[in-house]
Design goal:
By secondary structure, the chain is α+β, with helices and mostly antiparallel strands. It has a single domain, classed as NE0471 N-terminal domain-like, CATH 3.30.2020.30. Helix content is 29%, strand content 23%. It has five helices and six strands, in the order αβββααβββαα. The chain is globular and about 70 Å long. The structure holds zinc ion (2 copies). The site of one zinc ion has 7 residues, from helix 3.
């Protein structure tokens, strides 16, 4: 055998590598373009997006508020070791203060690439790009792939 030491990658291995590369990097343009965006402000539940590639995503307002992509919130989460969407740890108190669930007073598109929420708590600096949202899709399929 003259090929000793040289490892040929099998077809299956090659396909596996290609699948992984695809998952890691290339979200198609259609996967990052919303066909329909619904902000369920009146219902107070969350936001839903139908993407051009046919995928459907939804996020609760609480998740979105706790995933705020502004520099201050990103820094705070990093210091506390929290993933986007994970709420702040609540200090143990004798008297639990009621905290109103996160809800936007309004929402508007930022150019063609993002959406911004004006939260009822007064915070509004986070710009949620379609890319960020799609990569943080909360459906079981996407969660399993991450
Ligand atoms: Zn923020
Ligand atoms: Zn998904």
């Amino acid at each position: 055998m003259s090929h000793e030491g040289i490892r040929f990658i099998s077809k299956e291995e090659q396909e596996k590598v290609e699948r992984e590369e695809k998952r890691a990097s290339a979200l198609t343009k259609a996967a990052l373009t919303p066909a329909k965006v619904r902000v369920l402000k009146t219902e107070g539940t969350g936001m839903e997006i139908d993407w051009e590639d046919g995928h459907h995503s939804q996020w609760h307002f609480a998740w979105l508020r706790n995933a705020c992509p502004c520099a201050t919130c990103v820094e705070e989460r990093k210091m506390q070791g929290r993933e986007p969407g994970v709420p702040k740890p609540q200090p143990k108190q004798l008297l639990q203060m009621y905290e109103a669930p996160a809800r936007p007073a309004s929402a508007h598109a930022v150019g063609r690439y993002a959406i911004q929420f004006n939260w009822q708590d007064g915070h509004s600096s986070g710009i949620y790009s379609w890319d960020f949202l799609r990569r943080n899709c909360q459906c079981a399929e996407c969660k399993a792939a991450r």
